[in-house]
Amino acid sequence: MYQQYGHCYQCQPELLWLDILSDCALAVAYYLIPVVLIYFIRKWQDFPLNWIFRLIAVLIVTGGTIHWMAIWTLWRPIFWLLGFVKAIAAFASLAMAVLLMRSLPEIIATPSFTELKKATQKLELKITEQHLTQEALHESKQCFHNAFHYTTTGMALVGLNGSWLQVNRSLCEIVGYSEQELLSMTCQDITHPDDRDIDIDCMSQLLHGEIRYYHVQKRYVHKFGNVVWILWSASLVRNAQGQPLYWLVQIQDLTERKQIEKTLQQQACIVENISDGVIVTDFSSYILDWNAAAEKMFGYTKTEILGKKLEILYSPQKSAALSQKIFEDLLGVGRWSGEINFVCKNGTERICESVILPLYNEHGQLRATVAVNRNITERKQVELALQQANEQLTGWVQELEKRNREIALLGEMSDILQACLTVEEAYKVIAQLVQPLFPDTSGGVFIISASKHLVEAVTIWGNSNFACKKVFAPKQCWALRRGRSHLVTADSHGLYCSHIEEHSLPGEALCVPMVAQGEALGMLHLHSHHKGHLTAAKQRLASAVAERIALALANLRLNEALQQQSIRDPLTGLFNRRYLEESLEREISRAERNQQTVGIIMIDVDHFKHFNDTYGHEAGDTVLRELGVFLRKHIRKADIACRYGGEELLLILPEASCEVCQERAERIRQGIKHLDVYHQRQKLGNITLSVGIAMFPEHGSTGAAVIEAADTALYHAKKAGRDRVVVAQSYQSCLPETDKQYFILPKPRYEMNVG
Which end of the chain is more exposed for a tag (fewer CB within 10 A), N or C? Predict the structure, then answer.
């Protein structure tokens, strides 16, 4: 057990070490506090009472040492050392107390932390304000510098003697001089001689303080010699005492504006003297201005028309719609152009070609419109007259082209009809040739029969609902009765042709007689369901077509008649000897190619000389004529009946066998016996025939050989008693033995003139 600080502790290890650890912690803390105080004093050397912190640091170090000595005395009880340390601590504490008492007024005078904080804040505020002021001053200088040097307006500082002190880039560009060149010159050096004294009075007023600034327009001479118009704006800069220092000048280039003003003046002069009427209206269509040409054009003076609505010049019926259309186009495409019918003051209407454009203010808003009007009334009248003349000329040209096409088609029709070989062939092509000449019409060609009692349609075209009868009498057509064209319309009260069915009468119908060489051959009929289609020109064309068709048909009939006369016997109506030779050669060649047969029947009238001697030659001709008619009726279409010579007749039977030829010959022989022939009302005697038959190629390889064989057979038929049919070579069984040798020899050919 020991005693410390007047206390006694039992020797308990737990309590002892607790005391040791506590002293150690206190000692360490006492030593760290002085370190912090010394660091604070070194950092804040200008603190007013820093010696107090030093004394506190010594006192605290002494207190820490006492705790270390307390721990030391637990093992080494050297109490005098502990007492010495405590004495030092006591002395330091007294010294500190005395010093604090002496320094108490100074300490009390020292500002508190709150006061120091407020003072610091005020100081910081002043510093900030000063900094902002400096920045504003710098920014102001920078702005002035930028405004001076980079503005598009020329700026300069000009001395009181007129010399350039400072100039910007825009001024150099306006006058063409560099900055160094201008600084070596005065304002008067580049001023136009006529404008050098223009602003002397203004400068004097500005120097005397009568005005703050002034503006004046004058001319500078560019470096390259051209004149530059400028706007000179000057103000005077003075010092604090009010003494003038220099001129602050703004110079604006007015050259372009002057040119625009000049152009506007010229344009105003042009507008006032132009021949087109110019009208300026506001957004509500009230007239703001117009020129002298508009006065002359519409009859209103400027004082009469200003402030009136533009609709006063429009037709009342078109005013609203036209204004709406113009407004939409101005907003949509930015302009309107067209023709307008205007009403003048005296009530007359005029046609104007107008172009209307919008006028915008500086904000891009539509505020007015300007309309340029040109009087085209006379031009329109001329255009209308020209259009009518052009339409008439176009109609003439089209009509001429149509006539040319019709003439070409007529020529083509004539050529084709002339190329036709038969009338039937011409009938087939007429419809194809005539229809293109009369489009949108129907029609037909009617031919008068040989008996002159009927008119029959040979070809028709167009509408299947044909309004004309196909067969009728010539007296039913007024065109045929009058010998001229006849036109009938559905609503007319003229003469109707009875061959046109009334219930189906078309819009109009035309009948044109076809006459050739003074003889009426037929009629061309046309009808249309539209009235007025068959014009006078079409009627003339129909007459020309009918004339050409009639002429072509007459030529074809004449050609056919001549052809028939050239190949037929005029007495019997059968083919003649020449046609016989041509046909026989053709049929022999065909049969030879096709390996077929051709039959030849030779016919002779028995006792024909008796008829001539008894009744006369005319009676003989009658017999031959009736015989020709009989043969034409009793042979096939493919068979060919010819007059071989005198009373001898010959039949060619293509592709017929010998049995068929015998049967035909026997039928003809028997049939002719029952034929009654009269001459001059006198019945002639019965007619008998002797017939000889030969076959190709059985009885001959050529036509002449076969005819000779048939002629030989005919000769033997007569020798055998007449009125019989004999086939070549079969006659040998019918003759006496003594006659066979005679008939083996060829019989001489019998020649006779045809006719």
Answer: N
